[in-house]
Amino acid sequence: MTAETSQTLDRGLRVLKLLADTDHGLTVTELSNKLGVNRTVVYRLLATLEQHALVRRDLGGRARVGLGVLRLGRQVHPLVREAAMPALRALAEDIGATAHLTLVDGAEALAVAVVEPTWTDYHVAYRAGFRHPLDRGAAGKAILAARQGHANDPGYTLTHGELEAGASGAAAPLVGVTGIEGSVGVVMLADSVPERVGPRVVDAAREVADALR
């Protein structure tokens, strides 16, 4: 800790992170041991977080993440979208195809940011808010590949005709961004994706990941 930081806030945030990493919740004693502080401190932290609905305790006394976190989470998409836009614009203009940032939303892939190229005669219409199963389309499959540890071989995913007849896609996962599962990709009207597109999409995904760290 430095003079510019708050020890209490730091502990509170650590509590939230610990609770977010478990499905069954944690007791006061477990939190006390993990944080290295006494139980009284933990009780005060939990009471404060409960007042803001960021933590809830069940009948057995185990603490879990509260629904108030969802309200904070609703603001994540606009922030992520803003951070990703420069890389998406550059990608769309360079490739001449519609570029998109896609995030996991439950069992689906959700396009949260889309940029269409300005100089092409035609391109695929792809809108923010579009959803599709994770196991269909390059964007979702790139995310699943990252989950399975295959993101670096070759680092991108190619598909054709899975979401729209005649359209091909390329996508690369966001790597190294804590708390966010997503991918950056392009979709184009073509029978196959040109060779240079895959590596270019990987570069764009890396740029977006760097902007989000």
Automatic annotation (TrEMBL):
Residues 6-67 form the HTH iclR-type domain. Signal peptide: none annotated. Residues 68-213 form the IclR-ED domain. InterPro entries: ArsR-like_HTH (IPR011991), GAF-like_dom_sf (IPR029016), HTH_MetabolicPath_Reg (IPR050707), Tscrpt_reg_IclR_C (IPR014757), Tscrpt_reg_IclR_N (IPR005471), WH-like_DNA-bd_sf (IPR036388), WH_DNA-bd_sf (IPR036390). It comes from the Bacteria. Coiled coil: none annotated. Keywords: DNA-binding, Transcription, Transcription regulation. Pfam families: HTH_IclR, IclR_C. PANTHER family: HELIX-TURN-HELIX TRANSCRIPTIONAL REGULATOR, ICLR FAMILY (PTHR30136), HTH-TYPE TRANSCRIPTIONAL REPRESSOR ALLR (PTHR30136:SF24). This is Helix-turn-helix domain-containing protein.
